[in-house]
Amino acid sequence: MAEASALEELQSELTCPVCLELFHDPVILECGHHFCQVCIIQCWEVKADELSSCPKCRKSCARKLRPNSLLRTTIHRALALTDPRVSGAGRRCGGAGLLHKEETVIHSKTHLFSDLNSFYHPPAVTAVTLDPDTAYPCLWVSPCRTSVRMGKIQPDLPNNPERFTRYNIVLGSEAFSSGRHYWEVEVGSKTAWGLGVAAASVNRKEEISLCPEDGFWTLVMRDNGNGTSEYEACTDSVDSLLYPSKPPRRVGIYLDYGRGEVAFYDAGDMNHLFTFNDAKFKEPVFPYFNPWPIINGCNREPLTIVTPHWR
């Protein structure tokens, strides 16, 4: 009963304060309140001669509407639960075999509650810093340990066990072995980069793949050398190219260690890019950064850990 009550309360928070219906194409204002895109535009059109303000808190705000695809996806899941055609009856869940319809609905509601709870009570932004002792010798880590760029090889660096000596990789200082964590990285106009997480035991001295089988869960932007770039989620399968609607300038990385999820977002509008599921972590993982080589004089910008806009 407690979970059902909490679920109803959270679902009520998915209601647009203007039309009193579930959000449709939800957008967020500078003040942090959400509205249907059509609703807020109509509100402002009615008061065309007045300064723009939030209909809920009345604070003045610029007419900048940031879509929230994470909220939209959550609402779609909520709607799916009300449709018996998508209740999941007879569908296999994991390796547990066939589930009865009632069991499946309960199972789905549990996951929806978790998703809603995660949205309205997101993980605290994790303070991530870079560990210079892991950095490839051509990587220069800033004194504050929040930025890394490619440069000339640094002489006389110790070949300590933690250091990557074959690839342009540096790891974060923080080891995660439980909980949910979120951080953002400014990639700007770089033409190539790699981000994600890496297991503590990854090979740092020899040839590797940036895939889960070698302990990496990464998303990369690759420069093709002909003026174009491509995005790829480095899965264990061969076909994992991504086609974002626009190049993200800031990337959000979300880690749920217990559920084995590593998700990537365009932090500008929280548009979902890719999620690794069922990672089944068996050891701590570290944030992963790869600023990629300088190609044809391009890609000199650093990767910089930044504070999320909504914090």
Automatic annotation (TrEMBL):
SUPFAM superfamilies the record matches: Concanavalin A-like lectins/glucanases (SSF49899), RING/U-box (SSF57850)
Instruction: Identify the domain of life.
Output: Eukaryota
Return the CDD domains for the record.
Answer: RING-HC_TRIM7-like_C-IV (cd16594), SPRY_PRY_C-I_1 (cd13733)
For the B30.2/SPRY domain, which residue ranges apply?
Answer: 108-303
According to the UniProt entry, its GO molecular function terms are: ubiquitin-protein transferase activity; zinc ion binding
What's an example GO BP annotation here? protein ubiquitination
> Keywords assigned by UniProt?
Metal-binding, Zinc, Zinc-finger
Query: Which InterPro entries does this entry report, sorted A to Z?
Result: B30.2/SPRY, B30.2/SPRY_sf, Butyrophylin_SPRY, ConA-like_dom_sf, PRY, SPRY_dom, TRIM/RBCC, Ubox_domain
Q: Where is the RING-type domain?
A: 16-58
- What does the record list as coiled-coil region(s)? none
Output this protein's name.
Zinc-binding protein A33-like
Q: Which organism is it from?
A: Monopterus albus (Swamp eel)
